[in-house]
Amino acid sequence: xxxxxxxxxxxxxxxxxxxxxxxxxxxxxxxxxxxxxxxxxxxxxxxxxxxxxxxxxxxxxxxxxxxxxxxxxxxxxxxxxxxxxxxxxxxxxxxxxxxxxxxxxxxxxxxxxxxxxxxxxxxxxxxxxxxxxxxxxxxxxxxxxxxxxxxxxxxxxxx
Length: 159
Known about the structure:
By secondary structure, this protein is an alpha+beta fold.
């Protein structure tokens, strides 16, 4: 009886997860995975690119496409879980944050307001005389780090 009850509870939980409103929009053999969250499509690209190449890829692949700009903790958590679900071994992904080398201010590549951040310990580093790009760490609970833009990483676009 106890085993039947546990099985029934697991079945209900599994059904609720599978019928959640954030369904997979597309699965691709090319390492791209898309999901919808609050009416916006987010696509994860597993092939690593530099920050600028990733931003250019996002612009090419969708109407008003950009690297993702994150304006809430719920979106940050959604993206963290999305990336971990599709690629458990990826530890960092580019998001659309960048710092100007001139005034040290961060901005989103889509031009939206910088009104949310989730920095990990020691970040941002504010190293002088270079642009820094923002990546999300999936090894930590979605904390962000600033780093040099020429590193190659997986990335997330929004369209």
